[in-house]
Design a protein that fits this description.
Chain lengths: ~450, ~230
């Protein structure tokens, strides 16, 4: 379509140029020998050659000589020539017009080519820059496709990795770098693409794509290496915890049992009871640490598949309270009777709440209690666990949930909150520390049940 | 009445020794076995009044022993389970075990469970269950708290009735669902805990610290047999 309009414009301009030069020749004819004025038609050929190229320039050259012959060389208004020597003049003029036209058209083609190459180079540089900035591969693909569409002058293009079949109405163009197929460019099948452009431009696109893929692969490897390094760090911390948190209760148990069994010691009844109580308490502590290590390894191995059922908050909190023993008396509950049911694994949420409550009770001063408050959100039930302890500065709030961290008081293995967050997230919930000038404030959000049972 | 006889089945010699000493100290006569085969043989020979049964045995599982035992004996069975073994524990309860304790457990806890299980064997079914302020009249279908009648929906009452007929006994989720909704309970299993919560809100002074209807995490519910 555009092509035809362009040709029409060219023809009109050509006619106008020939007419204009003919006018000039008419004006100059009284003053200059008319035969020498034929060379002026070069002025008509030149702009046409520069704007429309060789073919039209040649046509203008011929038309100019015909017009010169027709209007200005006798006999007038015929294509005959009275003077045979004028044939030579016409021939020379035509040759000059052809030569000038060809030169001008070539200059134009060079300029256009340079402009297109500049565009292409610019386009490639843009994408390369995006790559350097570390944009995601998908974004780079889209960018590359739209730039390629602009360079090829097609309305749309898309790029897919590897060798893919085209969709309806698409033409595939292979993208190959180092003899390897890296992707496929798809352009609308109906559009005309000048073959030279893809031949020159697509290898560069393919090379960029190859770089993008390579970068993506390297990034993946770096992430894996980072994960490995972190899991290594975790194992080291785990071993340290195991050696400390398992050995200290074991030491207490061994020492107490030895004392009880030793015939050389004279122990009163109170001493014996005290030693037995130590053994019992330290064995419970050992059991708790082992339980936490099991929880953690289950979470790390991704084996904490929740068995979800509908539960009410008071039952979930109740189970956690039951696991805390006597300390549970310090916990005050503010759970409205119409608190909605949640869809979770009760055993895992009990682990979350027990860890949160144990943590809050540990940091809260003995004379003050811990409050559990339930609050209904749009899609989740929020359980606030609030204590009157020292709380936490902003910057430490997220580190709280890293395994093997512990607060200033230094009790516990530092696993509880990491486990709590792990189980919360396994159940589609969230766990975070909230800013609260009054003390520690942790919030557990659990997904609401899709439907409540009929009250029957 | 002679001392009740308890069969203890576990393949850990240290646990057997500790339990033998403690149970004898508490006045029981103790037999022991360390395999499933040995357990069944001892059951037939010694006719124990109660069984303490480890779930993991070298030649089989406690669940199999339970199932076999229940074909000819009513002696209460208390299984010893470990954390992370909830499925086996529930299977043993469904196969006829009466109760469980989780390793590691204290001797006091095991003795309490044992006493309660033995007591239930002799207890006649009561038409009226009284527990603190709660009074359940099964014949008149009347429930009162501190003398005030409580309105229960049919499902809530059915649930309470099953629990009240077996005071102190642990009833698994499966048992409760079958008793209340029949065999094809299907979807209702999802709602069991919600019904229990509703029931607690009508009966318990502090539903999050229940005194009457107790939760056995991962296993089921029981009605407290004393406060």
């Amino acid at each position: 379509m555009g092509h035809r309009v362009r040709l029409g414009l060219g023809l009109l301009a050509s006619a106008a140029a020939v007419a204009a030069v003919s006018g000039v020749v008419l004006l100059l004819k009284p003053h200059v020998p008319v035969v020498s004025l034929g060379a002026l038609y070069v002025l008509a050929v030149l702009p046409v050659a520069m704007l429309w190229g060789t073919a039209l320039a040649a046509a203008v050259s011929v038309a100019s000589m015909l017009a010169f012959n027709w209007f200005f060389l006798p006999p007038y208004h015929t294509f005959q020539l009275r003077d045979g020597a004028n044939w030579l003049v016409l021939g020379v003029d035509l040759a000059i017009a052809f030569a000038v036209g060809a030169l001008a058209a070539r200059a134009r083609a060079r300029r256009e080519d340079a402009e297109r190459r500049r565009l292409e180079a610019h386009a490639l540089a843009e994408v390369a820059l995006e790559l350097l900035r570390g944009r995601a591969l998908d974004d780079v693909l889209a960018e590359l496709a739209s730039l390629t569409a602009a360079v090829l002058a097609v309305p749309a293009a898309r790029i897919e990795l590897g060798d893919r079949p085209p969709r309806e109405g698409e033409r595939p163009l292979p993208l190959e770098a180092s003899l390897r197929r890296v992707g496929t460019l798809f352009v609308p099948a109906r559009t005309v693409v000048d073959d030279a452009v893809p031949r020159r431009f697509l290898p560069s696109v393919a090379a960029l794509l190859a770089v993008a893929l390579e970068r993506d692969r390297l990034q993946g490897e770096a992430l894996e290496a980072e994960a490995l390094r972190r899991s290594d760090a975790l194992k080291t911390a785990l071993l340290r915890t195991v050696s400390h948190d398992l050995r200290s209760p074991l030491t207490a148990i061994l020492a107490s049992a030895d004392a009880l069994a030793s015939p050389g010691l004279s122990l009163g009844e109170d001493d014996r009871l005290g030693l037995a109580e130590t053994i019992r308490a330290e064995a419970s502590r050992l059991d708790r640490v082992v339980g936490q290590l099991l929880d953690l390894s289950r979470l790390e191995a991704g084996g904490a598949e929740p068995h979800r059922e509908l539960w009410h908050a008071d039952e979930l909190v109740g189970q956690a309270l039951a696991s805390l023993g006597d300390a549970a008396a310090r916990v005050r509950l503010e759970i409205p009777p119409d608190a909605p049911a949640v869809d979770v694994d009760a055993g895992q949420v009990e682990r979350v709440l027990a860890n949160l409550l144990a943590n809050a009770l540990r940091y809260s001063p003995p004379e003050s209690g811990v409050v559990v408050r339930a609050e209904r959100g749009a899609t989740e039930l929020r359980l606030h666990v609030v204590d009157r302890g020292p709380g936490l500065p902003d910057e430490q709030r997220d580190a709280l949930f890293q395994p093997f961290r512990r607060g200033a008081a230094g009790h516990g293995s530092g696993l509880g909150l990491a486990i709590a967050r792990g189980f919360a997230e396994a159940n589609g919930g969230r766990l975070w520390a909230q800013d609260d000038p009054g003390g520690g404030h942790l919030v557990l959000a659990l997904p609401l049940a899709a439907r409540e049972p009929a009250r029957a | 009445m002679s001392a009740p006889r308890v069969l203890v089945v576990d393949d850990e010699p240290q646990i057997l020794r500790a339990l033998r000493t403690s149970l004898r100290g508490a006045g029981y006569e103790v037999e022991t076995a360390d395999t499933a085969q040995g357990a069944l043989a001892a059951l037939a020979a010694a006719q124990p009044d109660a069984v303490v049964l480890d779930l993991v045995l070298p030649d089989g599982t406690g669940v199999d022993v339970c199932r076999e035992l229940r074909t000819w004996s009513d002696a209460p069975v208390i299984v010893l389970s470990v954390v992370g073994d909830e499925t086996e524990k529930v299977a043993a309860l469904d196969a006829g075990a009466d109760d469980y304790v989780t390793k590691p457990f204290g001797v006091e806890e095991l003795l309490a469970r044992l006493r309660a299980a033995l007591r239930r064997v002799d207890a006649p079914a009561e038409p009226v269950v009284e527990l603190g302020d709660l009074r359940i009249d099964l014949e008149k279908r009347a429930v009162t708290v501190r003398g005030e009648p409580v309105q229960l929906t049919p499902h809530e009452f059915a649930l309470l009735r099953v629990l009240a007929r077996n005071p102190g006994k642990l009833l698994t989720h499966g048992m409760l669902l079958r008793e209340v909704w029949g065999r094809g309970y299907g979807d209702e299993s999802h709602y069991l805990h919600v019904y229990v919560s509703q029931l607690r809100r009508k009966l318990e002074p502090d539903p999050a610290r229940p005194r009457y209807i107790l939760t056995e995490p991962g296993a089921g519910y029981r009605l407290a047999d004393r406060l």
